[in-house]
Design goal:
transmembrane helix; 0% strand; mainly alpha; globular; membrane
Length: 258
């Protein structure tokens, strides 16, 4: 079983309501974002730095966060459905509360996964400050070079393997899948080639998304379309992730049969 990149981009064929569902998701993100900007700028320009002004600025930010988590959960649910059924349609927005919870769990899991990176960043800062205070300029320069190099290498390794933990989470929506190393290793075992192929495809899709965003931001209409385009590409990336899981599961079944 190989990756079918065209299916990732043509998921709309499996759902006659795809446009409506994408517009709802993009509209929620765009509406909440615009409301947040309006309220924040209103507080800044009127200089209403009091409890009322604080609430006016914070509540729309919270609304935007809820919308973003819900939309992210929507794409995750599609990914899980795609694992179970290669012709799965997009989820129905009536399950928004479930999407919101799923998006929250995914973000919490990602935070747990990157805790070692955060800890190393803090340690790097302490080492550099200590070298600057107790040593000379040369000590600080050497310490900064060594510590930053180690941190960047550590961070890169975590980024490379984040995808498999995200794929692991997609299978069961268990927040601890992000830190279940044994489960992630079982997924990778015998599927290294497919894993790095999926990683390359997702990076390529991300590059296309960035190029499209740069072009769209040049016009007002393009800016309005960015949430729609972003959601479309987010679903494409989730489809590729689901395909990797299907390939991994098929590989395991083939191995057992042999």
């Amino acid at each position: 079983m190989n990756f079918e990149i065209e299916k990732a981009f043509c998921f709309i064929k499996n759902d006659s309501d795809w446009l409506k569902k994408l517009l709802i998701g993009a509209g929620m993100n765009l509406g909440a974002f615009l409301l947040m900007l309006i309220c924040v700028f209103a507080v800044l320009f009127t200089r209403a730095f009091n409890v009322g002004g604080f609430l006016i600025a914070v509540l729309p930010c919270a609304l935007f966060l809820v919308a973003a988590l819900g939309v992210y959960g929507f794409t995750l649910q599609y990914g899980q459905d795609r694992i179970r059924n290669e012709n799965a349609p997009l989820p129905d927005w009536k399950d928004f509360s479930s999407f919101l919870f799923t998006g929250f769990k995914a973000c919490l899991g990602a935070w747990l996964y990157f805790i070692p990176v955060f800890a190393l960043a803090g340690l790097s800062f302490i080492v550099q400050v200590s070298a600057k205070v107790h040593g000379g300029a040369d000590s600080y320069t050497i310490a900064s070079l060594v510590v930053n190099s180690l941190y960047n290498l550590f961070y890169l390794i975590f980024l490379v393997f984040y995808f498999v933990f995200n794929a692991s989470f997609l299978k069961d929506f268990n927040v601890f899948s992000f830190i279940n190393i044994a489960k992630a290793y079982r997924m990778l075992k015998g599927c290294w080639k497919q894993y790095f192929t999926a990683l390359f495809l997702i990076l390529a899709v991300g590059v296309v998304l960035n190029i499209a965003s740069i072009i769209l931001v040049l016009t007002i209409i393009g800016v309005i379309l960015i949430p729609f385009v972003f959601l479309y590409f987010q679903i494409v990336m989730m489809d590729i992730t689901a395909q990797f899981v299907r390939i991994e599961e098929e590989s395991k079944r083939t191995t057992v049969e042999e």
